[in-house]
Each structure stands twice: as C-alpha cells, then as structure tokens.
Amino acid sequence: HYLQNRTLRLLEQKVIKLYFILGILLYFKGEYEQSIKTYDQSLEIDPQNIQCYNNKAISLEKIGKYDEAIEMYNKALSIDPYFAIGYNGKGNTLQSQHKYLESIAMYDLAISMNPKLIEAYNNKGNSLDKLGKHQDAIEQYDIAIKLDEQYVDAYNGKGNALDNLKQHQEAIVQYEQVINLDPHYIHAYNGLGNIIEQNKRICIPQFGYKIFRYCCTTGSSILQGIFNKGSKNIKNLGISLLQIKEFAQAKQIFTQYLSKNGNERSKIQQYIDMCDPF
User: Fold this and answer.
1) Exposed e or buried b for every residue in 232-256, given b needs 16+ CB within 10 A?
2) First vs last Cα of the chain: how many Å apart?
3) What pLDDT shows up at residue 275?
4) Distances (CA, A) of 47 to 43, 93, 250
5) How many helices (H) and strands (E) does the chain have?
6) How far apart are CA 230 and CA 208, in angstroms?
7) Three-state DSSP class for 115?
8) Closest CA to 101 of 109, 91, 110
9) Distance, CA of 200 to CA of 213 (rounded, Å)
10) Does residue 234 have a pLDDT over 70?
C-alpha cells in the first residue's frame, strides 16, 4: 500500500506540473479561457497550489474578469500570507481598475515580503506616476534599476515620469537606455516619438534614425501622427537623420514635410540638397 500510494502521489505531481505548464503555454498563445480551464484541472488535484491560483488570476485579468482575479489572489494569499508575488499580482489587477492607492498598498506588502521583488517597485512607480506623483515614481524606478540594471521596464517608466515632469532631455536618456538594452521595445519608441512631436526644439541625432527605421518596419503610426498634425517637429527628425548621414531617409522626411509646409520651400530645399552631397 505504501508503494502504491507513493506511486499515485508521484503521478499526481506530474499531472499537476503538466497542467501548470500547459496553462502557461495557452496563456502565451493568447488562449486565456483555455488556460483558466487548465489551471482549474490542476487545482482539482491540488487545491493548495498557490502558483495555479496566481496564474489563473493573471489569465482572468486578461479577459477583464477583475473581481474573479482578485478572488484568486485572495485564495492564494489565504494559503500563504507571505506570498509576495500574489500581492504584486493583486496590485496589478487593482491598477488595471485604476485603483491606484489600493494597488500601492499591495505593492508595499509585496516589497515587505520580498524586498528584492523588482516588479513590485516598478509597478508601484507606475501607480504613483498615474496619481501625478512623478518624483515619487522615479524613486521607485531607481530602486528597481539598482536591483537590476538590465530591467528595461523601469527605465521606460522613469522616462515617462520625467516626460510628465517636462524634463524631456532626461526622459530621452532613459528611452535611449531602453532601446540600447532592447531594440524592439515599442513603448520607448513611442516615448521618443511623442517628445519629438510635442517639442519644437528637441532633436535626437543618434536615435532619430532608429525611430524612423522602427516606424517603417513595424508600420507604427508615430510618424504618421506627426505628419497628420502638420507639426514642424518632424523637421527635427529629418535634421537628426542628416546629422548621422542617413541621407536617403532624411530626404524622404524633408520631402514629406515640404508637401505640407510649402511656405518653407527655400529652407527645406536646402536640407534636401544637403541630402545629395556628392
């Protein structure tokens, strides 16, 4: 009987693990409802599995079932009151509901349980930024960066907070750091594009081309939005491209700009001529 029971327990553990992995795979495929069903099958075998409750909550949030997600986090936390990831996840769901003060309370609990939980500092920063407490948000992002200098979300969040404080040059530094670490991080390009669009005197030589190339390869609407507004800031992007000798791309920008700003023909034509140096 002992051997039989031990074999059954081992089989159960393997089945739970398989359901758990399948739930994760379904989640990353965007099949959130199927992932929820898979976690339920795992929980039928092991109703004390806090990771399953946690992952089920994440899937529930993805389909907008916030109250049910909170319930799952609460179940996990009732089993293990020191489950820092559960407090962090509950904070994320509250943040999605725009309950920023409540979310901060959850992040604080997560941090008290695990002072090295980087995501909790970053997420707390996001909630503080939403509340208009931009400097406080920056402090949280800095802690996250100190814990992990490769954590791109924190650099991007810090960029957003600095942009909200109108410290645009400092924000650019943060977005540039994100792009250096992850050239495919869309939010940093959006941040840089928005700064170019909203500020007439800002020019980003090194990253002007990267923004342009990113927009062209991904179909991003950043540049189109700038053109549609007739903003003169697009000229700065052309100048940026010219400065780093990306002549063909600069010429394309100036030509499009000229089509909407004919009154600047003489000056813009000079830039276009500079794009044909030889």
Assistant:
1) ebbbbbbbbbbeeebbebbbbbbeb
2) 88
3) 85
4) 5, 22, 61
5) 16, 0
6) 18
7) coil
8) 91
9) 21
10) no
Structure tokens at 118: 């980087």
Determine the Cα–Cα distance for residues 55 and 72; give it in Å rounded to an integer.
Answer: 9
The answer to whether 192 and 207 are in contact (CB under 8 A) is yes
Q: How far apart are CA 182 and CA 237, in angstroms?
A: 21
pTM (2 decimals)?
0.75
pLDDT score, position 247? 83
d(CA 44, CA 42): 5
Instruction: Tell me the pLDDT band of 229, cut-offs 50, 70 and 90.
Output: very low
Q: Are 278 and 248 in contact (CB under 8 A)?
A: no
Cβ atoms of 32 and 38 closer than 8 Å: no
Please tell me which residue, 270 or 200, carries the higher pLDDT value.
270
Confidence of residue 269 (pLDDT cuts 50, 70, 90): confident
Pairs from 113-120 (Cβ < 8 Å, separation ≥ 24): 113/82, 113/83, 113/84, 113/87, 114/84, 114/85, 116/147, 117/84, 117/85, 117/88, 118/144, 118/147, 118/148, 118/151, 118/154, 119/88, 119/144, 120/84, 120/87, 120/88, 120/91
